[in-house]
Design brief:
Helix content of chain A: 55-70%
Oligomer: homodimer
Largest interface: A-B, 41 and 41 residues
Order of helices and strands of chain A: HHHHHHHHH
Number of helices of chain A: 9
Structural class of chain A: mainly alpha
Radius of gyration of chain A: 17 Å
Shape of chain A: globular
Largest sheet of chain A: none
């Protein structure tokens, strides 16, 4: 196999893993009732709705991190990333969160499809040029690798709700 | 960046993600007492010790799947993969499970370090030659990608124990 073919295959594998976790999340969230999502995943732990909001906010933050665009829902950072669940104030309805999940995914996927391998292997916006020379793995695609693991971690928790 | 350099970097990123989850698991398991590991992650759900055994058994099964060797602890499949937690009979002590986690990891990592890119992109033992021609992403490295996500999923659950 030629090296160029290898590289394209490797990028595809990473994007397929991202897509698989997103599909899993979408199916899981669709299968849960609002009542289930409102519950804590275990006594005293995060609620399903907090974890859902958290995953949307983290995906949304990938847009500027990967140099694609501003975030779509910047106000979610305060509620779902900077603060824990128990500090949460009344926020969007679950229906609105589900809508946002779809919107953020569609936006990210549109950019993903338009990104070529050189773009994927370029630095993301949170690493300096100097550091990137020494650590070329800190590229945009590696953000996708890490966020895929982060999503799987929380899916394992959300799965406890049903 | 040359295509060969790109391919090597992409393989490295995938192996780093695997290593990061394994480090996370090791640190988490070390931080939990035997009493905590014996508890259910949520009422009526799997215990920590079952999930630990499950992750060891799944990693152990990668040895034949990747064509490296036979499994080290084949008897774990029955207890920790084929059967759910609640069917579990008395098994190894937690100390023995922790030892096996380290042994399986060391064995896998030794093989990982000796694997070149062509080996990583060759088919694993659960896909036929014919299918592999059509779906070249079903290679050995993709098993690592998937198992990394699987581990993150269960780490998210084990994390509820502390």
């Amino acid at each position: 196999m030629e090296a160029t073919t290898q590289s394209n295959l490797l990028v595809k594998m990473i994007l397929m893993a991202w897509e698989a976790q997103n599909n899993y999340l979408n199916n899981l969230v669709s299968s849960l009732t609002d009542e289930q999502l409102t519950k804590e995943i275990a006594p005293g732990k995060n609620t399903g709705v907090y974890l859902l909001g958290h995953l949307i906010a983290v995906s949304d933050a990938m847009l500027p991190l990967l140099g694609f665009s501003d975030r779509l829902f910047p106000e979610m950072e305060e509620v779902f990333i900077k603060n824990p669940d128990k500090a949460r104030q009344a926020f969007s309805s679950i229906a609105e969160l589900k809508r946002r999940l779809a919107v953020v995914n569609a936006k990210l996927n549109g950019h993903f499809e338009a990104t070529e391998i050189d773009g994927w292997l370029s630095r993301h916006t949170a690493v300096s040029s100097d550091d990137f020379v020494k650590e070329p793995h800190r590229n945009k695609l590696n953000v996708v690798v890490n966020r895929t693991g982060h999503m799987a971690y929380h899916i394992g928790q959300l799965r406890l709700l049903n």
